[in-house]
Amino acid sequence: MRAVVAHGPGDLRVEQLPEPEPGPGEALIRMAFGGICGSDLSYWRHGSTGVAVMTEPLVLGHEVSGRIAAFGPGPEPDGLAVGDPVTVHPATVVGDEALPDRIAGRTNLHRVVRYFGSAAFTPHTPGGFADFRTVPVGQLRPVPEGVDLRRAAVAEPLGVALHAVNRAGDVAGRTVLVGGCGPIGVLVVAAARAAGAAAITVADVAPYPLGIARRMGADVAIDLTAGEPLPEDVEVAFEASGVPAAVGPVLAATARGGVLVQVGNLPAGPHPADLAALVSREIDYRGSYRFVDEISDALALLAGGLDVEPMISHTFGLDRVAEAFEVAGGRKSSKVLLDLGGPAS
Questions:
Q1: 251 with 274: CB under 8 angstroms?
Q2: What pTM did the predictor assign?
Q3: Which residues of 152-171 are buried (b: 16+ CB within 10 A; e: fewer)?
Q4: DSSP 273-295
């Protein structure tokens, strides 16, 4: 089978690998679409993302959709059948260590979680940018009727955005600022709008993503390169760029007693950031990491009519993987999908 494999910085290949066979409790998925994420780009550019460093070749991809091709030995699971369209919760909790009461149920915070397409552990966990991938049936999420597999590939990053909005608390009727309009940022816009935010302002340094954010539901778009100021006293803010220098201005725009959620993945190591307003404004600064099971909520929202088409900017076949990654890493794209060759609907 074909697979998209990173071998190191700048070394991305489409290779032939053995087709996997599902074991007990697993399903074989014929992949249809995969979304290129910031972590995929980081592995391609640097051979690492955050503190996860590649030490061996890695099949990329954790935003995927496809159809069940076969089950492993044993009875078929209830509610699933060969041919069903599915997406995948990419996290596998390792071990049975109980979470402390303060984070009960927050499975994203387990000490050891293997994630599709991640080099956090050795051996690395292969991702889903391939013709086939075996998946534990408990990680499959059926795609609702009316949602095609192209849009279903966006359920994972939409789950990340929904988790970030959940971390903020109740945003209904509140003013919201989203700093950074990459794919996660514009999905936070959509998630906040779905949660009833009263007014949403977005800010970025490039006009293209600002236009996408407006189409995803933002009321006001601020071009930081034009010297436009951020709003004052927003009740809920999301820092989605992952740029340390952006944290201070977003903090300064947050109202006294407001909430700032850090959803952008900040780089490892020490970096300067102006945090003075955190103290003087008594702002709640909260981290947001992946999601628990908001991918299921994402699928329900897609089925209910949430439109992610404006942020799906490009689709490439596996014969154009290098171009796909170049485009995804540029400033004139939003979510770039790989057509993995499986059934599209």
A1: yes
A2: 0.97
A3: bbbbbbbbbbbbbbbbbeeb
A4: ---HHHHHTT-EEEE--S-SSHH
